[in-house]
Every structure is written in C-alpha cells, then in structure tokens.
Amino acid sequence: MKEQEWAGPEALCPGWQEEEVSDGEGPEESGHPDPTAHAYEVLQHTLRLEGMPRTRDRTDQPRAGMGMGGTGMGPLTRGGSRPHAPHHCLAAGSGPLDMTVCILGSPTAFLPVLLEGGTRYPGAMVLCLAPAWASRVPSETSPGSWSLLLSRGVSFEAGGCTALEEFVPPRRATYVTGTFGSEGGWEAELARDLDCPTGGSASLTRWLEDPLLSRWLLSTRAGLPVPPTLAFITGLREPLPEEPEPPGVHLVRLQDPQGQESLVRDEVGAFLEGSSMQPYDQ
C-alpha cells in the first residue's frame, strides 16, 4: 500500500486553525471527496463540540515507535531535547508506554474511549484515520499472523488534547478496534489476523447489527433465551445458518412482498395473541 506524501493538517482540513467556525452542516454531511480529509474534519468538529482544543501538528517532531526499537518517550527536537508541552496538555508519551491502543476509522464512535484513555494513559490511545497511516508485516512472535505498525496517527492526551504525530520507526499496535462496518473495508482489512487482541471484526459487526441473525445464533448455538421474534424475510436476504427454527423465533418467508398485506396482518395477529407474548400482556 503506497503512502501519499503528507502535506500537513492544513491540506486535510483547510481553515483548521481558525477560531470561528461557520454554522450549518457538520463535516458528516460535507461530502468531502478525500476520505482522510473528511475524517480529519469530523474529528476537529467533534472535538470543538465537546469543548476540546484543536489537534496540534507534531509531525515535524517524529516520535520513536514503541515496540519497534523506540522507547515511546515522546517527540525529539533536532537537537535531541524534548520540547515542553503547553500547560494544559501533557506531552504525548511523557512516560514509558508498554501499550498502543489503535482505533481504526471514524473518530466519533470511539471518542469517549479515546478521551478517557488519553486521560488515564497519555499517548497510549492512537486514532488511525486512513489506511496509508498503517501497514501490516508478518508477525515475529505468531507465525501466520500479522503485526500492525502505525507510521502516523492522532494521539490522545490528558485534558482532551490531541496531536497529529509521525512514528519513526513505526509504532506497533498492542490492541486494535475500530468501525468494522463491512467486509472489504480498510479497517477490517488492517485488523485481519493480527498477533494482538482485537475488539471486533466485520463479521461480528454484521452479526450484531442484524437482530434476526444475532438472536438466531444466541438461541441455536448458545442455548440462550431471546425475545419473542416475528420476522418477515424475502429471497434477497442472506441465508441463515442451517439449523432448525429456534424457540421464540418465527420466520415468515415472502416470495413476493407485493400483495401480501393479508398474510402479514394474519401473522402479526397470531403472533400477538400467541403464548410467547403472554408475559408481555399489560
């Protein structure tokens, strides 16, 4: 995966240093043609709404990548000294770090986790907004697995402070999660078969976002009770696992949804009057 030349946050988010931001549509609705720039805009917009300071650009002071020969002790100036951070922000990695929690994708879904993690372990939480900011290399400890290395990221610190940073050499992730929305997305691809714990996958996300599938699996494979469920499905739906219909779940297959009003009405009536719904009667 070839990495494009980094042009700084101004290229990602024009006007990011301006104090005033015009009202109107948020970055989620901006339709920005550059996904990385769009994600950076979303991050700045979200931080602003939370009353947090803007992300500082520290890419001119590369940090040693923890776990890849570096100490994780923060950025170095050209003279080898460590710059002082503003009084309201701790320097990222101001103490030795033995972990890197990497969040892949959208900054909004995990913002509370990033902010709390930055307060408890400044510099350990790193947000990766683009596939070019990370790479996969064969694991040195787990044959057949991969290590995720971060060359760039947004680190979170105490007080809601954030910094855009370069990691030289790259920083190895020790825990990975993110917005694994679909198979084939770059977040899911980067998190596949890693040698560190991961907080999800595209398949798990698909199961959790599908109430029928999740209830089906919980009932048939885990033996857990599920809420009474009446589901109307068509041939367009992905097939369910090859198990008998589980208790509490009733499927009605519609070959053609058009002209099925009477069938749907009868099935809903029978379901509401059935024994499975009796505990819910008022």
Automatic annotation (TrEMBL):
Q: What organism is this sequence from? A: Bambusicola thoracicus (Chinese bamboo-partridge)
Q: Where is the composition biased (Basic and acidic residues)?
A: 47-61
- The region called Disordered is annotated at 1-87
For this entry, the protein name equals: CRNS1 synthase
Biological-process GO terms, alphabetical: carnosine biosynthetic process
List the biased-composition ranges (Acidic residues).
Answer: 17-28
PANTHER family for this protein: CARNOSINE SYNTHASE 1 (PTHR48066:SF1)
> GO MF terms on file?
ATP hydrolysis activity; carnosine synthase activity; homocarnosine synthase activity
**Which InterPro entries does the UniProt entry name for this protein?**
CARNS1
